[in-house]
């Protein structure tokens, strides 16, 4: 670790110099199959030629102007996002956390518009929404929150995948204005709710006049086999938060809204210095164009089905495995013991994976894997689990 960096990350003992597709190369020239792709960011792989060309071309023209003027690439991106999501309007920032903050500010405005002095938001246990104070306060992890008190008030926590718990809060708390939920909990270890859960939340919100806010920072942009995970259930949220894979590594985040929620932010009420700049927006436009042209959503669904079936077959009967679950290319293997040694062994074997909640192997591989690469990840990780547990 550098003496000049704050100690905020437990780094793996490796540094990468370059990448190509699903491969990363370290300082010794060793190559690794990337099965986590920057925590779900580089969905199109590394050094994607068209993305690289777009970045280079825009860097040679215009990086930044500020949002005091029209930014045509930002306008193009907003149109594309609304078209694939079914939403009405977009605010473009720099990160997923900023998208969450934007969503929460809209929620406060909506509550005040209804005459609620202290609008409340229902959030879920074991959720993760970001590191800023409001996003951290919404997050369902005491480990992440510890030491940062006092937290932002206004959040009511219920178990994930439990409609009855939401109904109970609705009957008792008349300050609730919205529900904030991840369609699939990523940091919690790829927790996939029952079919109909999102549809049930939509019905509850409609009945009580609440906003449904979906945090699709990790699950969005083709990751689960649809542009956004809510599309599996045929619903629409009122507010949608998107980031990670949106620009394949260029920092960007988007808060999308529809209906009244899309009208509440007016000049002076919200803003960003760097967000929506020409470089980030042109890159995101290029990413979305490639994904649409190459039917990347379908490929993610196809690969996810293949890899999930492969893990279940190869790990059948393994007593250390509690569960194997996923949706598209959000894949989790839960063990009954610490999975850290598996992550370390995988790195040695040339596979980059992640462990969350100590016992859950999380994989978010790039959506451009070929079948052989997908099978290599499955076989290598399965063999390591079988030999190390």
Euclidean distance between termini CA atoms: 30 Å
Any idea what the radius of gyration is? 21 Å
Biggest pleated sheet:
7 strands, mixed
SSE order in H/E notation? EEEHHHEHEHHEHEHEEEHHEEHEEEH
Number of beta-strand segments? 15
What is the overall number of helices? 12
* Helix content, binned percent: 25-40%
**Strands across the major sheet, in which order?**
4-10-9-8-7-5-6
Low-confidence stretches: none
Described by the principal axes of the CA atoms, the overall outline is globular
Number of domains: 2
User: What is the CATH T-level topology of the largest domain?
Assistant: Aspartate Aminotransferase, domain 2
Annotated CATH architecture of the largest domain: 3-Layer(aba) Sandwich
DSSP strand (E) fraction? Answer: 15-25%
Structural class: alpha/beta
Mean pLDDT: 97
CATH class of the largest domain: Alpha Beta
Corresponding CATH superfamily of the largest domain: Type I PLP-dependent aspartate aminotransferase-like (Major domain)
Supply the key terms.
Aspartate Aminotransferase, domain 1, single chain, seven-stranded mixed sheet, globular, alpha/beta, 389 residues, Aspartate Aminotransferase, domain 2, 2 domains, four-stranded mixed sheet
Explain what the structure shows.
This protein has 389 residues and is of the alpha/beta class. The chain folds into 2 domains: 51-293, Type I PLP-dependent aspartate aminotransferase-like (Major domain) (Aspartate Aminotransferase, domain 2), CATH 3.40.640.10; 295-372, Aspartate Aminotransferase, domain 1, CATH 3.90.1150.10. It is built from 12 helices and 15 strands. It has a 7-stranded mixed beta sheet, sandwiched between helices. β11 and β12 form a beta hairpin. α3 packs parallel to α9, α7 runs parallel beside α8 and α11 (340-349) packs across α12 (371-388). The radius of gyration is 21 Å and the shape is globular. The two termini are 30 Å apart. The model has no long low-confidence stretch (mean pLDDT 97).
